[in-house]
Amino acid sequence: MYRQLVCLCSLVFSCSVLAWVDSDLDGVPDKKDACPNTQINTAVLANGCQQNLGLVNVSPIYFNFGQSRVLRSQLPSIERAQQIIKANKLVSISLLGHTDNIGSEQLNASLSVKRAQSVKDILVTQFAIDVGVIEVIGMGSLAPVSKNSTALGRQKNRRVEFKFK
To answer: Per-residue pLDDT tens for 111-159?
Structure first.
């Protein structure tokens, strides 16, 4: 009886120990790790897989009509972006500048680049993000997220979006 109890305890103990083996040191036990070979010190989700940074939610930076100056109210979104960049040691981020459809396409193309450049300047100067990891892309009015027929729709289209790679 004693021998059976010892065997049973050993079995329970060894099973519980195996459940907590974490071969890739990502904080998720191998038994529950859907991505068992992540790099050491990589931030992962509860299932052990790396977060898809293309889907990380960072609000766009919105601008006043015809302006490329970043509004103070938009700084929390830029700060959130820099936290993601630093936490994930990202090698590349694209800033996609957009405009509404008021004005010529040439003017809007130029303005969209200036907007993205303004966000880049803040990331570099205020948050010490390496200038080499940030790409600026001007989209002009070619990719609206809302109708340009209303003031609210045009306001939503005047933005810079973050694309993490």
So the answer is: 999 999 999 999 999 999 999 999 999 999 999 999 999 999 999 999 9
Facing residues of 93 across strands? 134, 164
Two structure tokens written together for 38: 């992540």
Amino acid at 34: A
Angle at 71 between CA 135 and CA 158, to 5 degrees: 60
| Domain definitions of the chain by residue range | 2-32, 53-164
- Decide: 147 and 36 in contact? Cβ < 8 Å: no
53-164: CATH architecture: 2-Layer Sandwich (3.30)
Q: Which residues of 125-158 are buried (b: 16+ CB within 10 A; e: fewer)?
A: eeeebeeeebebebbbbeebeeeeeeeeebebbb
The per-residue pLDDT for range 39-75, each reduced to its tens digit, is 665 666 766 666 655 445 789 999 999 999 999 999 9
126 φ, ψ to 5°?
-90, -25
Read off the pTM: 0.68
What is the residue whose two structure tokens read 């010892």?
6
